[in-house]
Amino acid sequence: GTPRKAKSVPKVSQAPAQDTAQASQRKPRTRSQASKKTSGTSARGTSAYRSPSEARAERLRRANHGTVDVKKTIRRVCIGLVAFMVVGLVAFFVLKNSSVFAITNITVDHITNEDIQKLVAVPEGTTLLNMDEKQITENLKEDPWVASVSFERQFPNTLHITITEHKVAALVVPSAGSSAWYLSDEGTWLQKVDLSVGENGSLSAAALAQAEKDGVLLVSDVPATVNPVAGAPATDEVIKAVLTYQSTFTSELTSQIVSYSAASSDSINITLTNGIQVALGSPTQIEDKEKVIL
């Protein structure tokens, strides 16, 4: 007979077997490992969240840290300033009497009077750092015209002095004699003035001419008991009365007053630019008197 055909056996793929083998080699994840992963994830989520109290505590911590830094900075600055001051003081005391700053040149503003230059003179060896301003000022004020003194140190060796003089307010003419006195606006006697009276002239006319020349007020007929002293304040009641009127009147009236006649503190008269003479009497109710005049 006919020989039988051998049945073909289908080939079995080896890949699934290998996959199965690999799969069998994989170990199943244990419950503990799964729980670790879960717990790790939850821990990371928890770390990103802070309760209000924790956030507040963190802000306070940062604020306190900043405050500490500021305090440290302030302390360093203070220490630096103290050190600088100490060094400066030491340097000052070292240089105070040093010849480096010895005064070798003195300049004075607006004053050319030789007497002033003599009064300004400072002791030899005086420096710009140890000079006695008070003593120099007192020396200068021996001149009755000196009202105030200011100093400017121009290092290394020059002292510049500015002198402010008194302003003349009036020319005062006593009833006796042929001289007059300048009176400052602060009521200080400044200087005696000899009036030049011609053969046919009068003392009052010469005094008025001098006052107009100087651009000051004339005060005439002053009692002979008034005894001016250069540099001294005018303390006589009659002079005080004139000054009281002049300082109380408004500028509208004072600009029209040419002269005062002051025989006594109760007998004060004024002459205006229009030639009118007004009897004022004692220095009372001055505002009312001015209203009547104007």
Question: TL;DR of this structure?
Answer:
This protein is α/β, with parallel strands linked by helices and 294 residues long.
Structural description of this entry:
The protein has 294 residues and is an alpha/beta fold. The protein is built from 9 helices and 10 strands. A hairpin with a 4-residue loop joins strand 9 and strand 10 (277-279).
Give me the secondary-structure topology.
Blueprint: H1 15-25, H2 31-47, H3 52-95, E1 105-109, H4 114-120, H5 133-140, E2 146-154, E3 158-165, E4 168-174, E5 179-184, E6 189-194, H6 203-214, E7 217-222, H7 237-248, H8 251-254, E8 257-264, E9 267-272, E10 277-279, H9 286-293
Parallel strand pairs: 1-3, 4-7, 7-8
Antiparallel strand pairs: 2-3, 4-5, 5-6, 8-9, 9-10
What does the largest sheet look like?
Answer: 7 strands, mixed
Low-pLDDT runs? 12-24, 34-47
Class derived from helix and strand content: alpha/beta
In total, the number of strands is: 10
Write the H/E string, N to C.
Answer: HHHEHHEEEEEHEHHEEEH
Number of helices: 9
Distance between the termini: 174 Å
Q: Roughly how many Å is the radius of gyration?
A: 52 Å
Nearest-integer average pLDDT: 81
Strand order, biggest sheet?
6-5-4-7-8-9-10
Note the overall shape: elongated
Strand content: 15-25%
Helix content: 40-55%
